[in-house]
Amino acid sequence: FAENLKKQGYEPVIFCANTFHSERDPVDLGQGKCKVEHIEGIPFIYVKTKPYVGNGISRVRNMLLFYKNLFPVAKSYAKRHGKPDVIIASSVHPLTMVAGIKSARRFGVPCICEVRDLWPESIIEFGGLSRDTVLMKTLFRGEQWIYENADRLIFTMEGGKDYIEDKGWSIGTGGVIDLNKVYHINNGVNLELFDASRIENPYTDDDLDDPNYFKFVYAGSIRKANNLERIVDAARYLPKESRIKIIIFGDGDERSLLEKKCVQEGISNIVFKGKVEKHFIPSIVGRADANILNYPNHDIWKYGGSQNKVFEYLAAGKPILSTIDMGYDIIDGHNAGIVLKEQDPATIARAMEGLASMASDEYTAMGLRARNVAQQYDFKVLTNKLIECIESV
Asked: Among 1, 18, 54, 84, which is disulfide-ready with 46 (CB 3.0 to 4.6 Å)?
């Protein structure tokens, strides 16, 4: 977004933590609370935090440190370079939006909050926690405060307005939030970069290159939240003479368990390739015959989704097999693949067989529709939606 804003005359500045949500080493800040780096002519201000592993106390400490240290860092930067015209606070976690709103008030400027996850609803749905605890009630009140005090709200999932209404927070349902300030801008893909990477970073793999199989590819994490055991079980339902092969790229704490299960149960039509560098993903998903989108089903999906991999899959121009019954479904809405209303392994296996045996012209047309949809989510297009939101405040 920043690159495209800059091309249109804006001067974006990005404040972010000096740590990564991965195993990468943090950015070394020396003894200071921040470090300024210029990437593609865009200032990145890395704010001091502490590394963390998993989703426990260390991650909460990381969030609190970013929140605490952001205020003096932003004040110091503004003193040298001038205050911003608008602040966009993106919810990597909710405290970034709280910090954005409070900083905007101190500078006397508007704040746009971008909601990338429905916290704490997603914690309840995916973590199995009760919404009736004091902690959850406090988090919901904090979420409501953010939505009420933001000058504009951007939801990456399309059902953001539905969510606010269901909570009773909109003017029409007895609350104070004007739904006219709510925008929808989904995640997207840089098609120019995707296509270039597909050519410049080819990924060589014997299974992926085998013309004798119809290859279903999954690329992503292999954790409980991804529910890949369901795909492994689906492989057992494929006929022995099937020419389907399922190829899994990625890593996570469930990978070894699933590999062991395949060995114990003699499941030979699924292979695990491990983690790959992100620049290989365009080549991998582009050479699949179909790509798999798989998550456990939860009520929260009724508000839509914004998974990055969806847009990489669409850009690949190949049909997508989705096991999620999702509201505002991009794949289903544009007939860019097969979306399953039932997610049991036998149904998934039948869907795989159906895609593999699809008539050539129908299969090609489905892939073309996927690629055409990706063009609607190119960051150049999405940036114009963001500019519309920015200019409205």
From this structure: 18
Q: Which residues pair with 153 in a beta bridge?
A: 113, 182
Report the b/e string of 250-283 with b at 16+ CB within 10 A.
bbbebbeebbebbeeeebebbbbbeebeeebbbb
Contact 314, 191 (CB under 8 A): no
Listed in sequence order, the DSSP H helices in the chain are 2-7, 57-81, 94-107, 121-127, 134-149, 160-166, 191-200, 206-209, 229-236, 255-265, 281-287, 308-316, 330-333, 345-356, 360-376, 379-392
Give bridge partners of residue 177 from the DSSP assignment. 170
Do residues 332 and 319 touch, judged by C-beta distance below 8 A?
A: no
Q: Is the distance from CB of 371 to CB of 318 less than 8 angstroms?
A: no
Mark residue 347 as left, alpha or beta (left: phi above 0; alpha: psi -120 to 50; beta: remaining): alpha
Length, in residues, of the chain: 393
Residue 199 near residue 269 (C-beta atoms within 8 A):
no
- Give CA–CA dist 129/220, Å, rounded: 25
Tell me the whole-structure pTM to 2 decimals: 0.94
Average pLDDT value for residue range 101-113: 98
Question: Residue range 156-178: average pLDDT?
Answer: 98
